[in-house]
């Protein structure tokens, strides 16, 4: 932003060729629009749902399904056609809806866009659409309004705004019209500027538009958000690619089936039915159904733990991260502070009541300054709300010393506030004390010392000496080395009421220092070890100074010999190449801005790392987009940040987040097992049924039996495997591939198993067929059903199933459904099987061999 805050509002009005009273003329409006552009809110281009629908419908397996449906209709097999076409359209709708939802996530940004504005043009007050505003317009805002453009304040009264969407500051911000002398400021320090999309909480103002559209602070931030390519791992897309790969195999098989049909003089009806049956076996579309069921279960389970995820894609992305950016407060330390040490006169003392008697005057004055220069609110019951954790800590320490914020504010009325400034790094309030006035000042030690001419010792004001200054700086260093957050206190008395334009932050009297302790969580050190066991680099963001951050890092074991602490000021003075050189060495970042955070994520990404970043404010969204995955955390997280994040965790507990990452790795490995399991059974189905159909010229297999196995039995087996996710032996460094590389798992042992079961199915069919064709089919599906259950134990242990009530219930349910399957389709099969003990014995022997084969393969290939 052009430094409009450096100029008086009169100069701004003159530069923009406007008029304080009459505003712009129509000619000047047109001229301004040509030069500075329109005040467009957001230019979001999202794909239409129909386009997304056809994008998925044109995938190979979908095209094949529709083509086969048409063929089935041609031979009057309407039941099969309706099923195949219906399930295909349903799956396409599910995928298209998910894509549409992701495409429209950024539309949630429209919720912070203003719609109307009160504008003065040619001396008339008009209510216009906010998009019609131009630079130079004179605008009125009042309580309840959304600021329609970036404004330089000309007049204001008791103006308080919430601008967290722009600056990230969640507290109320007081604004004023006075120009600011500092040359370079962060947006949060531009107290005479109202930013577009901020909310007016109290008061009113009149301002001149200095930026519109993409040139506003929110516009530039949103533009960067839209430009950033947020790489997302889409599990559903990977599954679709696997199914498409199997579809290509199906097409190759069609050539052979076609030749067989011609050579064997198969009728058209039989040929089309065979194509349909083979499609159902070799193209495992049922995996989509199974994964969606699992996704629903997982989301429900996570919701109970107060975790919101988009789906399994988020879990897959989370499982791949190797760098984690987290805020110190809330993750490793409690969201509270307490006053631990004090520096008064020449000594550092403990803050306990028995240790402060000798310095009572200085301590009481520090507390009083801290309570009056404090924006936290205290209700009638004494409950503290709003305000940051340092302000809350001072209020609590005041209570212990029988000094109360509400009482002091009644006795010493606040006249005005000079807000905290990023350059000055101090905050001041002017308060009335009877018929006199006092400026109460808190802030950074170095910055405040520069403004002090005197020091308070034993209640007396004396001129500050070089020895005093050195003593204060040594105390600041000592407290910081203990990992304490240090605040300095000063004041200045006035016999008259100074104005807001007067430099009341000079000739100050130094009072003392407070060292505030932000206590560690009990799980803090354990969580860092846990993080490293997961092969994840923890990167901490803190508001402590570099010395305190360094002390904290060594205490926690975050900083090793070659690790370093980097501050936001240093990052601001580095180019991208310099940041890239050091980013891998930095363990802690001190006092960084949201832009710094975005740069850090971007550099890690450039170096090939998978970065997860936590946050709870709108200003964290660019970092979310630049990272591999954005995680919103905390009860105070803004709704738009929740909506835009990949994952939301209500609790900031770091161990909980790491536990989620650990679970995601086990879960994704198990999902990989489930997909692999379904592929194996599909291949066995294909080989056995195709072989039987070709060599025995039997092609009248009822597709409903295949559907029962694929959509019921395999789903229950998949749930059984899923229920054992906690027992997965996860290897922290092993990446799980969910694409065509899953076929790399086809070891010689697996191929041997596929061959054995396929031959067994064909052999049993041949033996039973000699008696009766129906008996052959009965044996085929009996062994296929039971084999699918047996093969599920390639991925799990029977002892763990018995111990887990849910797993055991699923296992028993599957066997019950197996009996129902035969009762429904082959009511005489079980009876005939018991009568033919020879056939029963053969089947049992073959199944026992299958069990031992699985155990043998498992022993070789699974640790």
Automatic annotation (TrEMBL):
The chain crosses the membrane at residues 49-74, 80-97, 242-263, 275-298, 674-695, 707-725, 746-767, 779-796, 808-826, 838-857. The keyword Thylakoid does not apply. GO terms for biological process: intracellular potassium ion homeostasis; intracellular sodium ion homeostasis; potassium ion import across plasma membrane; proton transmembrane transport; sodium ion export across plasma membrane. Belongs to the cation transport ATPase (P-type) (TC 3.A.3) family. Type IIA subfamily. It is an enzyme of class 3 (hydrolase). Keywords: ATP-binding, Cell membrane, Hydrolase, Membrane, Nucleotide-binding, Transmembrane, Transmembrane helix. It is a multi-pass membrane protein. Residues 112-224 form the P-type ATPase A domain. It comes from the Bacteria. PANTHER family: CATION TRANSPORTING ATPASE, SODIUM/POTASSIUM-TRANSPORTING ATPASE SUBUNIT ALPHA. This is Calcium-transporting ATPase 1. Pfam families: Cation_ATPase, Cation_ATPase_N, E1-E2_ATPase. It is found in: Cell membrane. It comes from Clostridium colicanis DSM 13634. Residues 4-63 form the Cation-transporting P-type ATPase N-terminal domain. Its EC number is 3.6.3.8. The keyword Nuclease does not apply. GO terms for cellular component: plasma membrane. GO terms for molecular function: ATP binding; ATP hydrolysis activity; P-type sodium:potassium-exchanging transporter activity.
